[in-house]
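Q: PsiF repeat-containing protein, please. Structure only.
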Amino acid sequence: MKTISKSAFFAVVASTLFCSAAMAQTATPAKKENSQQNRMTTCNADAKTKSLQGDARKTFMKTCLSGDSTTKDGKPLTSSQQRMADCNKDAKTKSLTGDARKTFMSSCLKKS
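A: Structure for PsiF repeat-containing protein:
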């Protein structure tokens, strides 16, 4: 009977340790903000700075959060600004740096 008691005791101890380890792994660590959260923070700050309220704020937030091509003051980008934004995005996607980035940006911006 002592053998069964020891086995039962060790089973309980082992399951307790296993459950503790499992619970420690499922605890949510501090999350990093994703780009949408960063955009939300930025858009909220811009709307507050502009003292927007009601429908004007809703419209601004919708446009800002969607990532539409507008400047900080809400005006649409000019064609050259849009081209610069597109070329920058492409260069970042390709992970270009230094002279390779300069060459790419130069040729990209010259395209019509």
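A: Brief note, in case it's useful. The chain has a mean pLDDT of 74.
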